[in-house]
Each structure stands twice: as C-alpha cells, then as structure tokens.
TrEMBL record:
SUPFAM superfamilies: P-loop containing nucleoside triphosphate hydrolases. The keyword Transport applies. Residues 48-225 form the AAA+ ATPase domain. GO terms for molecular function: ATP binding; ATP hydrolysis activity. It is a peripheral membrane protein. GO terms for cellular component: plasma membrane. This is Predicted ATPase. SMART domains: AAA (SM00382). One of its GO terms (biological process) is iron ion transport. It is found in: Cell membrane. Keywords: Cell membrane, Ion transport, Iron, Iron transport, Membrane, Transport.
Length: 260
C-alpha cells in the first residue's frame, strides 16, 4: 500500500496556489531576509499555472524566495527532497529560506510533498549522496539503485537526474538551472520542462537568468524587483535586451562593455 506521502492525488498542478507574508510572524523587519525590498510592504504570490518563472537582477532575493518556498514544501532549504537530507550544509552557501518560511503562509490545493529542490551549488553533494547509497533502497525515490550521476558531466548528470523524476507527481523548484547547462543542454531542459508540464502532475517554480528558459511558452513569467513582482514578457526583460545587443554585434558589444 502506498504511503500517504507518495500516493498520487487525482488533481492537476498547480498544487501550491498562494503564498503570503504574515507580518505578525516577522520578529525583526530590519534583519535579513525581511529587509529585502520586495518584502517591506507585504508580499503575496499566486500560482495560477503549472510553470512559474521568476527573473530579476542579482541581490533581489530570488534564491531566498525559492528557499522559503522549498522549506514550506517540506524540502531541505539547501537542496534536496522531503524525507531525507542529502546535502552537507557546511559546503553550501548561506541559506535563509528557513527563516523566511517561518513568516510565510501557504495555500495548497491539495498539499503535495513529493518533488525536489534543485540548487546549482548543491548538485554535486546531492549526487555524491545518491552514488554513496546506490546499493541501498531509498524509499523517497522509490527506484532502488540510483544511477551513477557523477560518472557524467554536470549538465548530463543534471538532466539524467531529473529525467528519473519528472514522471512523478510533485512540486519541483529550480534555482538557476542554466548554471549546470550549456546552451544545447538548456534546449534539452526545455524539452524536459515540456514533458513535466504536459503530464499535468508536476508544478515547476524556477528562477533563471537565461532568456532561453524564460521563453518557455506555457509559463507565467514574473520579474522580481525592489517594487515586488510584476508580469513581463521575455522581450521586456533586461536579460533578453542585453543578449539581443550582444548577438547583433558580439565584437562591438564586448569592446564597448570593457571600455566603459
């Protein structure tokens, strides 16, 4: 008999429908992460489709927001899945998702705890963990012996890793997956994203700087700035505008950039 955690729920994604900041849970508004500009005047985010993509400049709090969402979903804030903690936090960058999640509230329909939180910084520690226990059965994964991810390149291992999981119901959170992927691998990731989307059982929340990934057609694209979140098109993002200028004249673009 399937466990409560792993049973399939007969409802389509999205499962996480809304998150919002509860001011009564913020102990010190001047402390990080509550001092982030987008949190100062309250915060809420609705999820109305299966794929949500968040863009914005460095320092706006995208990773912290994803860490907070991952913690709400029952994942390790440094990356991984619910039910076990494969990540060595001593090797991870400082994460603040647990602190943020303590002040967040969530609306689920229904609550789904399966899935994965991918952080580029922790991919190899996760892969090392799975390789280490490849002779053991891991109930959370439900597939017995995991493949040897470290025998492949970072990008290939990443794609194999999620190809193993994208057929399962769950919520999948990706923080800048392009850091593990070449441009051609990003195309493969878009195909993977498409399979997850059309399955109807996967909710994806992703932060990215890649215009190629931002262009996924079924996604809701949101820009995070000091003013909060706003819906944008790919062509309205600074990432696309910079890349367009570079592609139009690579030599001239680089020369002008380094002479500024």
């Amino acid at each position: 008999m399937a466990s409560r955690r792993n049973r399939t729920i007969d409802m389509p994604a999205p499962y996480l429908r809304r998150i919002w900041l509860d001011p009564s849970r913020v102990t010190d508004p001047a402390a990080y992460p509550f001092c982030l500009p987008f949190l100062l005047d309250g915060f809420e985010l609705d999820f109305d489709c299966a794929v949500t993509i968040i863009v914005g400049e460095n320092g706006m709090g995208k990773s912290t927001l994803l860490e907070g969402i991952a913690t709400l979903a029952g994942f390790d804030e440094a990356g991984g899945a619910g039910g076990y903690k494969p990540v060595d936090h001593s090797d991870a960058l400082e994460v603040m998702g647990g602190k943020l999640s303590s002040a967040l509230r969530a609306g689920w329909l229904p609550k789904v705890s399966n899935g994965w939180f991918f952080r580029a910084e922790s991919f190899f520690s996760v892969a090392r963990y799975l390789d280490k226990v490849q002779s053991e059965d891991i109930p959370t994964l439900g597939r017995g012996r995991p493949p040897d991810f470290l025998s492949h390149s970072h990008g290939e291992g990443f794609l194999r890793f999620f190809n193993e999981r994208c057929q399962k119901q769950g919520i999948f959170i990706f923080d800048e997956p392009e850091s593990a992927l070449s441009p051609s691998r990003q195309i493969e990731f878009l195909k993977l994203l498409r399979r997850m989307d059309v399955s109807g059982i996967c909710q994806v929340i992703m932060a990215t700087h890649s215009p190629m990934l931002m262009a996924y057609p079924q996604a809701r694209l949101l820009r995070l700035s000091k003013y909060g979140l706003e819906a944008v098109t790919v062509r309205e993002t600074d990432h696309y505008k910079v890349m367009r200028e570079f592609c139009a004249d690579p030599d001239g673009f680089v020369q002008a950039a380094i002479e500024e």
